[in-house]
Amino acid sequence: MPPRLSPLDASFLYLEQPTTPMHVGAVSIFERPPSGFDYDTLVGLIEQRIALVPRYRQKVRHVPANLARPVWVDDVDFDVAYHVRRSALPKPGSDDQLTELVARLMSRPLDPTRPLWEMYLVEGLERGRSAILTKTHQAMVDGISAIDIGQVILDISTPEEDAAAPKGRGGARGPGTHPELWMPRPEPTDVELVMGAVAEAVARPGLVVENAVAAAGDAVATVGKVASGFGQLFSMARTASRRAPGTPLNVDISTQRRFAIARTELEDYRRVRAAHGCTVNDVVLSVVAGALRDWLLSRGEPVRSGSSVRAMVPLSVRGEADVPSTATAGSLGNRVSSFIVDLPVGEPSPVVRLHHVTHAMREHTASAHSVGADTLVRIGGFAPPTLHALGARAASGMSKRIFNLVVTNVPGPQFPLYAAGARMLEMFPVVPLAKGQALAIGLTSYDGGVYYGFNGDRDAMPDVEVLAGLVDEALDELVGTVS
């Protein structure tokens, strides 16, 4: 029988609704190399590398009558040109035009009859740049051997540098220059799927009831029951004693999105960190708190001294037994723990806001072992796309009554990466919205920059660009406290 989806992975299929598609994305900006970078180049690159992510040539098959969880089967009609698509902005394409396109593309659900991913090459950006947008369903990010398609197309050097380098040096992947011959396995028939489910039910009778309950829509309960990898997360959810504060971020959401971006310099966060004895992540959360405060005031919302916005913050962690030096690409596993942090948006002083956040995070992480950027690179190459997806998975399975928004912060490598010789300049995460939550914030540090992606509901967040624009002001406030 083909591999069956884990209970957690299947739950993300059951959780999906028209207003909450369960895919995570990323927008990467590339500089055009002298040799050129076009659609055919990208398709060829995917054909070379897709063997590294075999799940991306598989689709989901449901078992008749939901007798068992769905299975992964090879897509015998797999067409890479269907999944890798081309779009263009009217030259010279601006950031506003790009973010509008991203919002529209991310609003569309993935085709459930095909492998659950898409990639878009967006041409026509100003200054001769291009963008690559990836969409991947959270059911594909299994938390055990998770690698995103956006990771495998990236190298640490250009093809020209590889050719000139001494033997033994190469890019981050090294899959060869020709696509490997792939022979899909035949799809099982409905009868075979039923027979496999019956055999499983005989061995474990309770699975029939569990699968029926999950497929009927009790997916949140299923996630909470089976996600042993996120045990700390759900224990925290059960013990939460206070509901999240009321904010304009928590409303019924639509099927459409808005997307906005912000660019900052990593050195500014490091300066604040050094001056105040905290972590870069503490500074990031303080910047988010400051931007949210100014955004709420711009809307005329009541902001009192004790006002707060509760964020669910997934962090990359490792256990005592983990040995990063021997970890390999694809072994990220469930190294994500999530913490609830009350962002003090009612506090006018940026320094006091930072101290509040630092104290809260120290309490949370006292027993955890945070993974630094260098370790993440050793574990999974260019880890941010996968870790943002794991963070989004954690948020999707948690009660939305106890937090207002998700903030995922994943450190990336501080050196340039390339796709077929095109240098990646920036990378903006697109974190999916949870039911009843109008905003999700993702950010990634890469090659000296810190890049924010704000994914908002189109109706509830018409001013998401205003919030993104306030990030610089909130960071400047903190930098101004450094002597």
TrEMBL record:
The keyword Cell membrane does not apply. Residues 5-284 form the O-acyltransferase WSD1-like N-terminal domain. Coiled coil: none annotated. Keywords: Acyltransferase, Glycerol metabolism, Lipid biosynthesis, Lipid metabolism, Transferase. Belongs to the long-chain O-acyltransferase family. Pfam families: WS_DGAT_C (PF06974), WS_DGAT_cat (PF03007). PANTHER family: O-ACYLTRANSFERASE (WSD1-LIKE) FAMILY PROTEIN, WAX ESTER SYNTHASE_DIACYLGLYCEROL ACYLTRANSFERASE 4-RELATED. It comes from Pseudonocardia petroleophila. GO terms for biological process: biological process involved in interaction with host; glycerol metabolic process; response to hypoxia; response to nitric oxide; triglyceride biosynthetic process. It is an enzyme of class 2 (transferase). This is Diacylglycerol O-acyltransferase. One of its GO terms (cellular component) is plasma membrane. It comes from the Bacteria. It catalyses: an acyl-CoA + a 1,2-diacyl-sn-glycerol = a triacyl-sn-glycerol + CoA.
